[in-house]
Amino acid sequence: MAIEIKMPALSPTMTTGTLAEWLVGEGDRVNSGDVIAEIETDKATMEVESVDDGIMAKIFVHAGAENVAVGAVIAVLAEDGETASDVAKASLEKSSSAAPVPSFASEAKAPAEPAPAPVFAASVKAAPAPQTKSSDKPRIFASPLARRIAADRNIALEGMTGSGPYGRILRRDVESTATAPIAQTTIALAGAAPGGVIQTGATQQGDSYLVANSQMRKAIASRLQDSKQQAPHFYLTVDCVIDNLLEARKALNAKAAEGIKISVNDMIIRAAAMALIAVPEANASWEGENTRLFRHADIAMAVAIDGGLITPIVWAAEQKGLAALSQVTADLAARARDGKLAANEYTGGSFTISNLGMFGVREFAAVINPPRGGILAVGAGEQRPIVIDGNLAVATVMSVTLSADHRAVDGAVGARWLQAFKGFVENPVTMLL
């Protein structure tokens, strides 16, 4: 009996997704556990594994299809003893006799005649046909965003070596490649200027191009716009002297077991977690009729990935020592960049940390990532002149800014939390108490 492959729900909030790429073609043998497709959700581009063995008999949703509903049949597998052609034929007959499938795109129109296959194409914008494997044309490993930018700029991906995991081509690889000239698009209009031809667009756009927004980019835009519009942000900044922290990190790494490397960010996460436990009123989120108070410091750390941002969560961070934290954060960051996080690893949490210090950013204020009640923006540690007991000295100083939702966290509570955080950072031995 044919096995239906359906659009999976890769996060609790996912209702639709973009089928970014098929990694197998019709007629290919598929084994349980094989990665068969990449799905672009509102959180990330993630790999989808097959749960059954069989032959890929028919692909209904082409690569590039947007707004594919969760649960929609995207392909069928033929089991052992079945022929792919028979299964494909039976699936087409079944789909043509079934009730019309609603369009995934709200602006799409119903087809004039019944289609022989489910009407997934209603939401596809010039979707290419699925590519089958070929021994003389190896598959190109590239992110969906990198492919779109390459297509817009007329850049060939063949032969390009990417900077991502296992040579995967990322956005930055394409953008660093010289682009071909972009052709001017013109349209003819009755009664136009002399010559009857004008450039498309109401105004001159210069040397520019359009890149289609991914599901992740749209979700980031929507969530953060809602956050700035609905959550009354307030901001508190303190400077932390981190010379003791840097010395403690150096000593810890010298004594750590092989494979353990504690980062400054690990120690910041530990300090933030300890401060949330010390000031539990700051470990909160607003939920309309109620304020949720968290018993643990479930800290989401912002990780930049190709095309956007994702925040994997260190659950109960206050219960983890620095060695354990270093392993957890390294694993989460690596799998986040590879698109291999499970939904429960980036959904929820009570507090967020965004660290741009590695880019040389001295100070910034971050937008709260709802429903969390606060986010800490961490700047770079740098040598600055300070006054100690009336004398001028030089110390390594790190500026941090707390953005808090005033509905759930009062200003005095935020100030007490920052005071506790600063105390743990400047006296790291207290993190061990």
What's the CATH architecture of the largest domain? 2-Layer Sandwich
CATH homology superfamily of the largest domain: Chloramphenicol acetyltransferase-like domain
Task: Indicate the overall shape.
Answer: elongated
Strand order in the sheet with the most strands: 11-20-19-18-14-17
CATH fold-level label of the largest domain: Chloramphenicol Acetyltransferase
Low-confidence stretches: 97-136, 178-202
Strand tally is: 20
Mean pLDDT: 81
| Percentage of residues assigned to helices | 10-25%
The total number of structural domains is 3
- Please work out how many helical segments DSSP would assign: 8
SSE layout:
Blueprint: E1 3-6, E2 16-22, E3 29-30, E4 35-40, E5 45-49, E6 54-59, E7 65-69, E8 73-78, H1 84-97, H2 144-153, H3 171-175, E9 186-188, E10 197-199, H4 215-230, E11 233-241, H5 243-255, H6 264-278, E12 284-287, E13 290-293, E14 299-301, E15 303-305, E16 308-310, E17 313-314, H7 322-337, E18 351-355, E19 374-388, E20 391-405, H8 411-426
Parallel strand pairs: 14-18, 18-19
Antiparallel strand pairs: 1-8, 2-4, 2-7, 3-6, 4-5, 6-8, 9-10, 11-20, 12-13, 14-17, 15-16, 19-20
Helix pairs in contact: 6-7, 6-8
